[in-house]
Amino acid sequence: MAIFGKKKDDGDKAAEKAPKAKAGGFAPDPAKAASWFKHASVSHQSTNYEYAMTCWLKGLAFDPANREALENYYKSAQA
User: Fold this and answer.
1) pLDDT per residue over 38-65, tens digit each?
2) Angle at the Cα of 51 (from 49 to 52), degrees rounded to 5?
3) What is the pTM of this model?
4) Is 46 exposed, middle or buried (0-12, 13-18, 19+ CB in 10 A)?
């Protein structure tokens, strides 16, 4: 009686775990970024600067061209 399942091929396992790229590459998503920026702003105002910095960076991942968010990130870092 076998307790363990059948061993899979290592090549198949690597192919399953590989991330699938989008057809068009990176596409900014300002709506998702705005949500992160809102959380960051609230966190900054409540003096939770470390979490605010994390939120600014998460939002910048969705909208890297947002200069205002980058400036606010540095404000949280300096506080």
Assistant:
1) 999 999 999 999 999 999 999 999 999 9
2) 60
3) 0.68
4) exposed
- Segment 4-13, tens digit of pLDDT: 677 666 655 5
The per-residue DSSP string of the chain comes to ---S-PPPPHHHHHHHHSPPPPTT-----HHHHHHHHHHHHHHHHTT-HHHHHHHHHHHHHH-TT-HHHHHHHHHHHH-
Residues whose CB is less than 8 angstroms from the CB of residue 33 and which lie 6 or more positions away in sequence, other chains included: 59, 60, 61, 62, 63, 66, 69
What's the Rg (C-alpha) of the chain? 20
